Amino acid sequence: MFFKRLRKIGTGPERGTARRNEATPDIAVTTSENIILKSGNYTVEGYFYGKGRLVVTFEPDTDKKPGTELRPGWGSTILRKNKVSHICVKPAESDWYQGAELAEIFSHLRHKISEHSRVITYGASMGGFAALAYGDALGAHEVYAFDPQSTLHRPDVPWEKRFIKALPLDFTGPFGSAIGNFSTAEQVYIFLDWHTRDDRMHAERLRFDSVEYINIPYMGHGAAYAASASGVMNHIVNGVMFGGLDKGKIYRDLHHGRRKVDRYAAEMKKRVAGRALFEKILDTSLR
Fold it and tell me: Which uninterrupted H or E stretch holds 142?
């Protein structure tokens, strides 16, 4: 077996809830079945509250400090708060989830995953790529991916030069490309700034009947950050947790909320630079 179990699966109250005994009042107790598995580069942490929706989250490429494997998983805080079953995948080093041991962990959890009525994969950038690339392996019904790459296999995407750390990695394995790996999903949402050339080119390679693009314009490679800063992430997270993504609310709130996002202001100022009338209009609209 590739991995070691850090915490035995067990059922117990979430932190902050009371244990019932003779000294406690008659109050509700929230329980979850928790598991932590570690293998090679990955720590996989699961919280299970029932057999309804299960969200599998993949974190983006971020600088990680040694020994922080037990940091909160991507999206785990709000998923735990809402008692939504989830599994968080946390790499010690950013490797675009290419380690063979991750598939072994998912295989070990196959029975646990299959108990749930809906499986949703969720991630941003490197994590968005993984949410797509592991979609079929996890039996995903829905995928939510921010700024995903289609692959970083150099011969397939020679124009992609942004992710220096990924250059030495081997993307020829079974999860080295997202293309063809999310065919089980009934609905795939890809969030991106359609004006960011490289993200658009990846998105175009990911066209499929189930794919729907949601444009978060003039934000660059940072759709998840922009969604949070503009106030629309709550609509997206509600879709992840409960289904029924409300695209109308996203576009409505984004239209006004994006003015609060620093990178939107910077991008728009760059576009109107030297055009006095447009500079004045933009300055007024950003106040």
Answer: strand 142-146
